[in-house]
Amino acid sequence: MKNMLKLGVAAAALAVATFAGQADARTPLTIYTALENDQLGPIKQAIEAAVPDVEVVWMRDSTGVITARFLAEADNPQADMVVGLAVSSLMMFDERGLLASYAPMGAEALRDAFRDDRDEPTWVGMDAYVGVICFNTAEGAAAGVETPTSWQDLLAPEFEGRIVMPHPASSGTGYLTVAAWLQMMGEEDGWAFMDALHQNMAAYLHSGSAPCVQAARGERMAGIALDMRGVQERAMGAPLEVVVPSEGVGWEMEAAAIVDGTDHMELAQQVMEWLTTLEANLVYQQTYAIVAHPDAQNFPDGYPEGVEAALIDNDFGWMAANRERILAEWTARYEAKAAPR
């Protein structure tokens, strides 16, 4: 019996040692991302299951911060990959020659808008996020304010001091919203609209989710924010209406790419292969309504109708090429109401 016990203990110790050895044998892959914190664990787990030789090491921050950091490191890149960042940011990186060309197998199965269809592609789309209005109906009823149906409705005097939106230099949702207004309205009318909206703005927050969270709590009447955050807050009981403005809505695609010159090119390519699969898209679908693979569509309960029809014909190349100019102009006009970081 004692010998059997010793053998059992030895076997268990060997299993633990083997597992530890396998874990130690994994290659750390540094991945820059702007994914929400609650997405990081499931995607890390799924990548490591699909590519067992990889240990995912996230470097996570908001879209603006990650974009600025990556560009600042252009001469000495610290990342192996970028996963879950606005495609307009990736286009900026690509223009500067910072991304490796790679065409993952299976990318042809993705929806057209989510593919880099050049002969030497550098990115692959993952999901889309949309800028909507989260309106607190209880606060609105108490103040005698009707639910807005358009962007122009937010200019009404009863909204003064009762709106928040993401800061476009910090948040991808903020930038896609500003870029959408400029594309939909034209630059002159777009800036005039933002001048008027600024008069009603309480603050510009450094998160794409925070404006909807504040609206859900009743801290603000309306927040311009991520579509899915509004749906999530409403599902948890918040008195929210998720409004798709009648003029149309801006949107941005999150995408993935390999950093040019990475020391772990083969492993990064294996990760890119997995990121294009239906399995990966089913993981994205847990937190996004619109994803790249057409067979992974499953809009959650409470998701507003008509979102896909309201998406503007977004020019991501224009967003990338004009980002610095637009942010400089926006900052000059509206930075006084930026929330503290």
Model description:
This protein has 13 helices and ten strands. By secondary structure, it is of the alpha/beta class. The protein folds into two domains: 172 residues, Periplasmic binding protein-like II (D-Maltodextrin-Binding Protein, domain 2, 3-Layer(aba) Sandwich); 158 residues, Periplasmic binding protein-like II (D-Maltodextrin-Binding Protein, domain 2), CATH 3.40.190. Strand 1, helix 2 and strand 2 form a beta-alpha-beta unit. The longest helix has 24 residues. The termini are far apart.
Mean pLDDT: 93
Give the SSE string. Answer: HEHEHEHEHEHHEHEHEEHHEHH
Helix tally equals 13
Level-1 CATH class name of the largest domain: Alpha Beta
**Low-confidence stretches at least 5 residues in length (pLDDT < 50)?**
1-22
Largest sheet: 10 strands, mixed
Number of separate structural domains: 2
Kindly name the structural category: alpha/beta
β-strand number: 10
Helix content: 40-55%
- Compute the separation of the termini in Å: 64 Å
Overall CATH architecture of the largest domain: 3-Layer(aba) Sandwich
User: What's the shape?
Assistant: globular
CATH topology of the largest domain: D-Maltodextrin-Binding Protein, domain 2
Question: What would the keywords be for this entry?
Answer:
D-Maltodextrin-Binding Protein, domain 2; ten-stranded mixed β-sheet; 10 strands; disordered N terminus; 44% helix; 341 residues
Topology of helices and strands:
Layout: H1 2-25, E1 27-33, H2 37-50, E2 54-60, H3 63-72, E3 81-86, H4 87-95, E4 123-136, H5 137-143, E5 163-166, H6 172-185, H7 187-200, E6 201-205, H8 210-217, E7 222-226, H9 227-235, E8 240-243, E9 251-258, H10 265-275, H11 278-284, E10 290-291, H12 307-310, H13 316-334
Parallel strand pairs: 1-2, 1-3, 5-6, 5-7
Antiparallel strand pairs: 3-9, 4-7, 4-8, 4-9, 4-10
Helix pairs in contact: 4-13, 6-7
